[in-house]
Design goal:
Layout (H helix, E strand, L loop, with lengths): L1 H21 L9 H11 L21 H15 L3 H9 L5 H13 L5 H4 L9 H19 L19 H11 L12 H4 L46 H5 L1 H4 L9 H8 L3 H10 L6 H12 L8 H6 L8 H12 L2 H4 L10 E3 L6 H5 L11 H4 L7 E3 L21 H13 L5 H12 L4 E2 L2 E2 L7
Antiparallel strand pairs: 1-2, 3-4
Length: about 450
Amino acid sequence: MKRLCLGLLVVVALLVVAYRVSCKAPSAELSQTERVAAIFEDGGCLSCHSAEPELPFYASFPIMGDVVVADSKAGYQMFDIEPLMKALKSGEKLSVVDVTKVEKAALDGDMPMAKYYLVHWGSQMTDAKAAIVAQWAEQWRAEYYNDGLGGEPIRPIAQSVEYDEAKAELGRILYHDTRLSIDNTVSCASCHDLGTAGVDNKQYSEGVGGQFGGVNAPTVYNAVYNFVQFWDGRAATLALQAAGPPLNPVEMGCDSFDQIIAKLAKDRALTRAFKAVYPDGWSEANITDAIAQFEHTLITPNSRFDKYLRGDEAAITAEELEGYNLFKKYNCATCHVGPNLGGQSYELMGQYADYFADRGGELTVEDNGRFKETALERDRHRFKVPGLRNVALTAPYFHDGTEPELKEAVCKMGTYQVGVELSDADEDKMVAFLKSLTGEHNGVLLTNANDK
């Protein structure tokens, strides 16, 4: 009996040693990037977080295989790691959202799941591996932003961005010009009013002929920071975005830009001013470029939270700081990153629960999100993450404009995107933090005229 027990102890000891050896961090002889790539490869990330997962042999087993396939499908829905792995190996530009997501998962020890690493020795995210990933992410972020503000996922808005002043002034005029609509009743400012935080505070905006669109109008402020425009990302630039509404039959209703130009060309003073800046005169490209240049001026720096990020610890309250820490704790800051706290990725609406089933009502074309443009099933209900700057002023919330209250929006994001039921106290703290994000435009703190 003693020999049997001794033998078992030896076997257990050998297994422990083997397990620890297999979980060693990648060699320090590798570059930092190579070590990080090795950690993700050894961790089996591609087994779940890719379009064509490298499933283990037991994925074909009854019952067990069903679990593996379901986990792989859910993992891919939440995060596709292939672009990050490709960029790590090729030296291409990384996504700030991808970097932040893997950093947070590593630090939290959430991935891989225990049921995976207990079978796949060497895949576990140890403290040593997490430290390597964290150091890499912080260094990468510091180089990416080059602002000397450390490794925070959120950055302050710059005091200015580059733009052409003469073009921007023309763009300002055109932005407010109702002649861009078929019946001369609707301008860009009709739905994106600069006096109401760049929105109209309606669920759906009203276009020509009293028609209503099917998606909530996002704020135009800080749109320059978005990696694409529109909820479904169909416009790659601000200029392409500006070209959309004038020809939309519900919004401005024009048949072509030639129709718009025919009206604008009758304005001799504006035409002279336009040709002075654009020698080739009126064209769709020049009109949308001018509006895009104007939108470069619509940034809102100097929020109290910006001041905190730049070192003024007294700029926010203790409650707001607690709210920010909760914002990071619950993974909100993995998608709501950068200067605009968002606008850098597409994410599924309903990661942990079925938002649309709970919302009720018929699904609309707009509910399809990015799927409208790609026809890829993974993109169904996936939307560009909205920026959260000035969010206290931009109700109602979500792509469908169904939530009028900021606190309830925070609650729903906890349920559907994070998978947690936030306490009332935590919701209040996070709302307090979000209110600290209201910034200034041209030195004046943003307010909402509808609240006065």
